[in-house]
Amino acid sequence: MSSQRNKIFLVTYADYEVSRASAVELLGVNKARMKEGVSFMSGDRVALEDNILHFESIGVSVLALTSEDAKQLATRKGILAVEEDVKMHAFDIKPEGTDAAYKPEAYINQEEMEKFEGTLKALEGARVKSNLCQKGASIETAEPLETQDEDTIVGNKEVPEAEFLPFNHESFWGKSNLIADSPLDDERQVPSQEGGFADGYKKAMMDIFSTMLDANVKKDTSKSCDSSAASADGLASVEALSPSYIPWNIKMVKAHRAWARGYDGYRVKVAVLDTGIDYDHKDLCVYGGVDFSGSESYMDYNGHGTHCAGIIAAREHRKRIVGVAPRAKLYAVKVLDDKGYGNTSDIIAGMEWCVNNGIQVASMSLGGVHAPSVAYRNAISRCQLNGVLVVAAAGTSANSDFSWVCAPANSAQAKTWSTSPIAVGAVDRRKQIAYFSSGGQKCLPWNPVGCVAPGVNVKSTYLDNENVEMSGTSMACSHVAGLAALLCQRWNSRDVYKIKKQLLLGTFHSHAYPPSTYMGFGLINCDRVVSIYYVNMFFDRLEEWHLFS
Q: FRET pair for 228, CA 20 to 30 Å: which of 29, 81, 313, 400?
């Protein structure tokens, strides 16, 4: 290879599990230069110019090359693509100093891609069939890394003992009837999972409105239902007793009704790939994290990551705010710097960390105005085949020359389900699409918007123990990540295919309007999604969302 290197590139391999030794051989480099990516980027970082980073769980290496070297490398057997490492940003800011018309360098090995597509389809099919046969058993995952005590909260604060227990509905809704939520009809013969509540706590406790809520849901099961109209009286009764600190957006997605069924995200591990999280915030419980931004800490000094984390899982004990899944376990994966910027390689490192640490939901409120990349597509696939559901913000570029879903949310491959995340658009209080919310596909097979959630003037946690309003598809993405945590708890499952399909079909069947370019399957409804079973249903439009029965 030429010694003249001027850009950083990502090399994606045809073999998902290519070892460092195999990568050295494929790249034709000195093995002394090959470093383990996560350890290198989360430690004392030195110039990448002299090193090659390898992410074995994701099947990607990062190295410096000239354009000519990159082009030649992409012709080698076993290599799918060589793509430029481009800058990404948080989706609440307007990127500075970037050229929207710039097209990153990308060299694709078409011959290897054709062979790989057949292999991926076979792998996905085998995973889905295996999970269906086991009726909810989790898929094989990478062995988690022990980074710290799993029940130790990071930060300088005192947390009430009650915060370590499932959500206490009695504290603000009066005495509970303590009625256990009955199994869904399609789940009655599923054996119960062990180990989800090691402390013996009996999950799924109902409040005094359990009978009323069940009745409203059961009588409203048609494809063209309007749940808000069918259950208006019942919902009004519940809303009347909802505490004032539950924000309008949490009520809009019916999260409080899911809590009433006993689903609060208890012990589900959610990673926020962002600017970090302010782990000293009194309304947040952060259980760990990692920094890939070069900041030497996963503390948030920007505010964006902290705001997203609060929408997902803010705790209610101060009675100021609460998130969609208030008992989920938050992990801060800092892939954007304190100004809100990062590179694709930083985000790839964060995704590998999620796979290696048993994360169940990865929330990515970030991206850039770029076409889908092979590196992102394969990284997302690897995550989801290993039990990490990826939820990504669609972007805020609706009024620009690049109005489509942004990267990495637009990642997809025809006739596959694991290569695409759930792409999330934003709506306002009136349930109208936000003026900035990206949507649509420039061409196939770009991933379109899968669903929408509140993203305009959303109040959540911020730096210095504050709670502020922010807008963006970043905020919408966080609501859907919270809903995914509720579903992970509902089934005690890491079956991403099942959770992804249930989330989208449950969303579709909770309202009357059809799927659309900007709203996907529509506004999420946490109560409907966790209470009615849709996984065995077939829907023609699923093909456009890269889901298959």
A: 313
